[in-house]
Amino acid sequence: MSTSAETAAAKHVVRAACPHDCPDTCALLVTVEDGIATEVKGNPDHPTTAGVLCTKVSRYAERTYHPERLLYPMRRIGAKGEGKFARISWDEALHTIASRLQEIAARDAQAIVPYSYAGTMGVVQGESMATRFLNRLGASELKRTICSAAGATGYKYTIGARIGTELEAFSKSSVILIWGGNPIASNLHFWMRAQEAKRNGATLVAIDPYRSLTAEKCHMHLAPLPGTDSALALGLMHLLIEEDWLDHDYIAQYTLGFEALRERVREWTPERTAEVCGLEPVQIVQLARLYGSAAKDGQAVAIRVNYGLQRTHGGGMAVRNIACLPALVGAWRHAAGGIQLSASDSFAKNQAWLQRPDLFPAGKKQRHINMSTIGDDLLKPASPEFGPQIEALIVYNSNPVAVAPESAKVAQGFAREDLFTVVLEHFQTDTCDYADIILPATTQLEHVDVHATYGHTYMMANNQAIAPLGEAKPNSEIFRLLARAMGFHEDCFADSDETLAAHAFKREDARSSHFDWEVMKREGWQKLNMPAAPFAKGGFKTPSGKCEFYSETMAKHGLDPLPAYIGPHESAATTPELAARYPLAMISPPQRNFLNSTFVNVKSLRDTEGEPHLELHPDEAAKRGLQHGDLVRAFNDRGSMQAVLRVTDKVRPGLLVGLSIWWKKYARDGKNVNELTSQRVTDMGEGPTFYDVLVEVEKVK
Description:
Layout: H1 4-10, E1 11-17, E2 27-33, E3 36-42, H2 55-58, H3 60-64, E4 74-76, E5 85-87, H4 90-108, E6 112-116, H5 129-137, E7 141-143, H6 149-159, E8 175-179, H7 183-186, H8 188-199, E9 203-207, H9 213-216, E10 220-222, H10 229-242, H11 248-254, E11 255-256, H12 258-265, H13 270-277, H14 281-296, E12 301-305, H15 315-329, E13 338-340, H16 351-355, E14 368-370, H17 374-378, E15 392-396, H18 400-403, H19 407-414, E16 420-425, E17 437-440, E18 449-451, E19 458-462, H20 475-485, H21 497-502, H22 517-523, E20 525-527, E21 547-548, H23 552-556, H24 576-581, E22 584-587, H25 603-609, E23 613-616, H26 618-623, E24 631-636, E25 639-647, E26 655-657, E27 693-699
Parallel strand pairs: 6-15, 7-14, 8-9, 8-12, 9-10, 11-21, 12-13, 15-16, 16-17, 22-26, 23-25
Antiparallel strand pairs: 1-2, 2-3, 4-5, 4-17, 18-19, 19-20, 22-27, 23-26, 24-25, 24-27
Helix pairs in contact: 6-15, 10-13, 10-14, 10-15, 13-14
């Protein structure tokens, strides 16, 4: 019979953090019994998590112990794309990889390219030991643009850094514009604060082409055409200035270029704005009056702008234009006012120490490959402009065959027989099916990590809860082993995960001067030292120290220095001949129970979503003789995909919605929405244009 002490030792709770690409970065409590994680729940003591998890992460133990977990190294034994593999030892895997990389590096190491993003957002298991290895190897550098590059660039031109309204402060806002996002699905803990504000009398406004779950629960919903958000912001600025809903003192002290802005927005009348956006003029007037008059009355008005709207040609300018609004009305004076795009630049990460750019071979210029154009780049031959042909890919924390745009070209590139591909993964994703070697990686419960966040200002600790399953290894350890196999003997490759975590943030920076890894491991988090209202008295991180309506930096970069409207690559207005053949704009926002392509293989979550579907307005369906439940084909010049049709007025006329991102192998035709998306990039930041797509839809015969 066991004693109470033995029982306590057998069952314990571990403090952890959610690793996924979500602004919430929740604090987790993992219950472990006899070495098995039996429950994952939100920590009620963490101020932003407040004990609540999304449906996805509450199933994290199910994902960790999934019967299809990759537990051993594998080598390909079939054709690329077939997904046929045989188990091998770690020694064989490392020797095979090192031999091929050494052979390629002897010609030109920049023919080796990493492909990674935010499969984990941890500092340790993300870009630390991996980047040290790649720098020492002399590989090409990946431009990690696929999510937020355009918006981040536009925001920085205006505000200077990705710093904004604190998550907890939104509960005290009087007006909240939720622009380009569906927080019920992808930012739950912001939504909790917005609901609290609503209960206290706040007005919530959703701006989204699709009537999402969030939009349905807001007081107002505006559904502009995709790619026209920058025009809507210009129209709002026109009215704020015209009606004098301005904070003249704030403008005079803390902004740059107001008179030029006044002239620029003069032409953006409600009528012109409505015509471009596909709205009614009265909607624009009502929104401007709500926002401007509340601010004029001294109330806190806030904007939560998300990344959906910046995935179009003019996405960077759209975020820049929206980021001008708070300074016009003096919203930054209030802790519960202003705007939040991201909190990423609140964190003083010890980037150079973690990634060691000094390891890159001296005298060589590093090539940059944009992850958003990987389909084209994998098919390019060597040239003086491009550099060497890509001969090897090392994929970790990403699933590019499913998530990268113009998927047919991506798959074609991955299918090259002369391309050597290594994938670190938890499951056999669409990308794994094209790998030469698969290496089993640990999940968040099986390794140590530390996290910055982009939705709140807490540094987060992740303690290892259980031993790695099978022969899985942390990303960091895999790259240590590869370094050893390649003969890299620098001391930095001996740094443990604990050492990496302990040096993640700069103690010499006032924001993280109190950072203490040992304390964080015990408590789970530490809050940054940040002012409640970061720009109440100016102090913007721009060259002028002001909110820059006029940006000299943009002028130097060859961009319009003032807010402007940049239309979509593909639309009736910009490409009328293309729109005549493909009259529907298409967007592909996240499925509620998936996170990008993560969690798609968790059966309980996939069953909730059913199967891939497309949503279309009843009028558009009637024009095409389509009915709810039909199997339809969406197509354009880049490709096609099949899905079941849902006819609903949640979708505005002229729009097709494909909630995403499904693995291709779960679709009837082995395809997903990225068959239709383009590799054309945004106006700034070289980001992808996932929501800048014209298509047509027809019934599958």
